[in-house]
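hey so u asked for the seq, here:
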Amino acid sequence: MWFTTVPILLIFSTNAVLYFLTWLRIRQETEIIMQSLGTQCTTRKASIRAAQAMLLLVVAFSIQWGALSLFGLWNLITAKVPQPLYYIVVILSNIGGKQCI
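ran it, structure tokens below
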């Protein structure tokens, strides 16, 4: 539990908070630029694309490592974890690698 569940939940929550703060900063800068340049800039579209890319990384991380967290929590409740969940954990943790966008 201490090597899988707790670090995964800690990393996920930290990532979610940091990505949210980054998105807020991008949005604030976009609003400032939009006020100074008006409708001539494409910064708003770039801001939306950046937010979508950040959201995609958070979703991919949660899918990839959420199964391991579920496995750890399930193992805390009962000692018998279903075999399909074990296979899902093995598959998802091994297909993850460098995430490039």
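The chain is about 80% helix and 0% strand. Helices lie at 5-37, 43-77, 83-95.
lmk if thats what u needed
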